[in-house]
Amino acid sequence: MSTSVSELVVSVAEQDDAAGMVEVIHAAFGARPPLDPPSTAITETPASVAATLASGTGVYAEVAGRPAGALLVVPTGPGLVTFARVSVHPDFQRHGIASALVHAAEELAARAGHRRVELFARAEFGQLITFWEHRGYVVDRPAPHGVILAKDLPAVVVVPTGPAMQDLGERLAALLRPGDLLIATGDLGAGKTTLTQGIGRGLDTAGPVISPTFVLSRIHPARGDGPALVHVDAYRLHSAEELDDLDLDATLADAVTVVEWGAGLAEGLAEDRLEVDVVVRPAPDADDDLRLVALHGVGPRWAGVDLHALRGHRG
Ligand code: ADP
Ligand code: MG
User: Fold this and answer.
1) CA-to-CA dists, residue 296 to 140, 190, 278, angstroms
2) How many domains does the chain have?
3) pTM of the predicted protein model
4) Residue 56 C-alpha to ligand 1 middle, in angstroms?
5) Type and span of the H or E element at 154
6) Is residue 282 within 8 Å of 289, Cβ to Cβ?
7) Residues 6+ apart with CB under 8 A from 224
8) Which atom of ligand 1 approaches the CA of 194 most closely?
9) Residue 2 pLDDT > 60, yes or no?
10) 58 lines ligand 1 (CB under 6 A)
């Protein structure tokens, strides 16, 4: 069978999807080698899946209108969720559907304010454990017949407007210190520069933060005693060597450095970094799209910083 991925639709599961999800779960778990003890997935019914969706949420995938993937998101504690029944219909394997399910589920869980995912994998399925490890999950502890894998979710802030994006930048600035490196990703027009404008306002730095057309890097000195803001647009850069030519090393230690389009290029600049990923999503009841800003700290600098405190603020 050949099915184009363009026919793949991944959506937040609704009650009506429960029957399709059970079809996928039964087909996927039925196709796996027999286990001892057997998985309880086969006992799922449309009613049991609908009940789980009612207390949590889920992700459902269809390919050309046929049930293709299912994943249940179940709250298990404060800020904590598990993913269960992660299934791809055997007819639709190797289309990247599992990755799409996990990606969507992580976004859903993070948007709902959850901080961490823990999930169970059977010890028999080494490949499955590898699948999760490739997506940033680490084996946290043993569990009967398998292991618990875990991943911390980024703090996701829902940002409805441009001014709200500046406001988020301003509040983020209050957490920043000299030496901090921020790597911002997101499509053109997502709001990376708008966020950086707010950071400049929060740090009280001089000069308007604008999208550089020819200038790749601009230094905005502090008006007070705080750090300068170094704003870099790496859109036109193709290698870490070209980034080296900007001499960011010279200012890095004393400034706050924000690199737009820096993913894959700027990680080597510092030991720690704050990854800021801006994505555009349709707003349920407004004309304008909204933005999701996912904040993820890497390295010891960010270990104790509560980025989730930036959520849920109405400015
Ligand atoms: P980028 O630097 O990611 O290419 P910009 O910040 O330059 O994006 O542009 C974002 C544009 O989208 C601005 O014109 C901004 O006013 C507009 N906008 C609309 N809604 C939002 C929002 N929720 N967050 C950020 N920008 C928004
Ligand atoms: Mg920009």
Assistant:
1) 20, 17, 12
2) 2
3) 0.90
4) 32
5) none
6) yes
7) 204
8) 6
9) no
10) no
Q: Tell me the C-alpha distance between 158 and 156, whole Å.
A: 7
Asked if 32 and 143 sit in the same domain, the reply is yes
Give residue 143 CA to ligand 1 midpoint distance, Å: 45
Find the 280 Cα to ligand 2 centroid distance in Å.
Answer: 14
The secondary structure of residue 248, as a DSSP letter, is T
93 and 169 share one domain: no
Read off the pLDDT of residues 31-76 as tens digits, 9 standing for 90 and up. Answer: 998 889 999 999 999 999 999 999 999 999 999 999 999 999 999 9
Ligand nearest to the CA of 287: 1
pLDDT in tens, 87-102: 999 999 988 999 999 9
> Closest ligand to 187 CA?
1
pLDDT at 214: 67
Question: How far, in Å, CA of 98 to CA of 139, rounded?
Answer: 19
- The residue-averaged pLDDT of 170-174 equals 98
| Ligand 1 atom nearest residue 187's Cα | 3
Pairing label, strands 273-281, 181-185 = parallel
Give the residue carrying structure tokens 């996927």.
28
Ligand 1 in reach of 160 Cβ (< 6 A)? yes
Task: Evaluate if residue 230 carries a pLDDT over 80.
Answer: yes
Specify whether 168 is located in the same domain as 142.
no
Question: In whole angstroms, how large is the CA radius of gyration of the chain?
Answer: 22
* Among candidate residues 133, 153, 173, the one where a domain is terminated: 153
Residue whose CB lies within 8 A of the most ligand 1 atoms, among 182, 194, 289, for a mutation test: 194
Per-residue pLDDT at 315: 43
Six-digit token string for 88:
């791809």
